[in-house]
Specification:
The protein is mainly alpha-helical. The chain folds into 2 domains: 23-56; 58-115, no CATH class. The protein contains 5 helices and no strands. The protein has helices at residues 25-47, 50-56, 59-78, 87-98, 105-115. Helix 1 (25-47) packs across helix 2 (50-56). The chain is rod-shaped, with a radius of gyration of 30 Å. The N and C termini lie far apart (88 Å). The chain crosses the membrane at residues 26-46. Residues 1-25 are annotated as: Disordered. Keywords: Membrane, Transmembrane, Transmembrane helix.
Length: 120
């Protein structure tokens, strides 16, 4: 085994080889800060709105929640008989239901009467 004295590159154990340069503390802090800001931004996007909350749910949870909200909308806003919610509450629930991916053209058509209520 050689200690690097007779090889032109200095060998594996040569003192001529310099360790890779270390990042400065400022550079490291900037990189960590940028990663933190991106993580906070993604978290706010996912949890900051109703749509974000829906995206954060699993498909099974989203489907169950959609079915429950639809049943409540039909019972409290669209049926003629029985207790009814205020127009504002029905409109708000209808706007929420529109954010679900399951709400297709037929869903939008059925929600139209709730969305056309008087404006506040």
């Amino acid at each position: 085994m050689t200690d690097g004295e007779d090889s032109p590159t200095g060998g594996l154990f040569s003192r001529e080889l310099e360790p890779p340069p270390r990042q400065s503390k400022a550079t490291r802090a900037v990189v960590i800060g940028a990663i933190g800001l991106v993580a906070i931004g993604v978290w706010m996007w996912v949890h900051g709105s109703a749509g974000g909350g829906l995206r954060a749910m699993s498909p099974a949870q989203r489907e169950a929640f959609y079915q429950e909200a639809w049943a409540e909308q039909r019972a409290r806003c669209l049926e003629v008989d029985g207790p009814r919610d205020s127009e504002a509450r029905c409109r708000k629930r209808a706007e929420y239901l529109l954010q679900f991916p399951q709400c297709d053209e037929a869903c939008r058509k059925e929600l139209a009467p709730s969305l056309q209520g008087s404006t506040p």
